[in-house]
Specification:
The complex is a heterodimer of chains A (110) and B (120).
Chain A lengths: L8 E4 L5 E6 L11 E6 L6 E4 L13 E6 L2 E6 L8 E8 L5 E3 L3 E5 L1
Chain B lengths: L2 E4 L3 E3 L5 E8 L7 E7 L5 E8 L4 E4 L7 E6 L4 E6 L8 E8 L7 E4 L3 E5 L2
Parallel strand pairs in B: 2-11
Antiparallel strand pairs in B: 1-3, 3-8, 4-5, 4-9, 5-6, 7-8, 9-10, 9-11
The chains are: A mainly beta (110), B mainly beta (120).
Chain lengths: 110, 120
């Protein structure tokens, strides 16, 4: 199972909005709405930020939103804050009954 | 409170096996699947597989078929991941994580990670 495709890096200034894409295939992102997003700060375990494409777990800021079109899911962060600087990973359930992560995107808040 | 506490760091020779444990507490162990995810230094997250203690079922990534064994001990509320035929590329931090859904990959709690170093 190949990794989902994410941009290696994105950047933005405080207060701006950014979007991170996550492209899979018709056997994963395109087939199910079981897409999730994780935020990972250096040397920390990942934190669940989005599930079921666009549902925020309790405690996650409403500045984070998710969407999907075809084989591509997206995570949008609005009103960027310095503490949003981290690595972000998407994940999808697959038709094989397995899971696949994206390659990860490093978000820099300038 | 929910906690997943993993065993300590390991250093192994190429060709050896490693077994990492994940002790769960603060919730009913058999109600949730435990997944294993690894991350090589500076690299992406990589899903390895899951075990569901309620029925003993497991599922693995094809990347690790034949090399990984994932088990759970309900009496000890502990999950285990054993990886065999280790090679240098297996050097990584190995995480266990609790899946709120069973197998869709929505992890609400993670272990602290176990660094496995494969080196001669």
């Amino acid at each position: 199972q190949s990794a989902l495709t994410q941009p290696a890096s994105v950047s933005g200034s405080p207060g701006q909005s950014i979007t991170i894409s996550c492209t899979g295939t018709s056997s994963d992102v395109g087939y199910y709405n079981y897409v999730s997003w994780y935020q990972q700060h250096p040397d920390k375990a990942p934190k669940l930020m989005m599930c079921d494409v666009s549902k925020r777990p309790s405690g996650v800021s409403n500045r984070f939103s998710g969407s999907k079109s075809g084989n591509t899911a997206s995570l949008t962060i609005s009103g960027l804050q310095v503490e949003d600087e981290a690595d972000y990973y998407c994940s999808s359930y697959t038709t094989s009954g397995t899971l696949v992560f994206g390659g990860g995107t490093k978000l820099t808040v300038l | 409170q929910v906690q997943l506490v993993q065993s300590g760091a390991e250093v192994k020779n190429p060709g050896a096996s490693v077994k990492v444990s994940c002790k769960a507490s603060g919730y009913t162990f058999t109600n949730y699947a435990i997944h294993w995810v690894r991350q090589a230094p500076g690299q992406r997250l990589e899903w390895m597989g899951w075990t569901y203690a309620a029925n003993g079922k497991t599922r693995f990534s094809e990347e690790f078929q034949g090399r990984v064994t994932i088990t759970s001990d309900t009496s000890a509320t502990t999950a285990y991941m054993e990886l065999s035929s280790l090679r240098s590329e297996d050097t990584a931090v190995y995480y266990c994580a609790r899946d709120t859904t069973g197998w869709f990959g929505y992890y609400d709690y993670w272990g602290q990670g176990t660094l496995v170093t494969v080196s001669s």
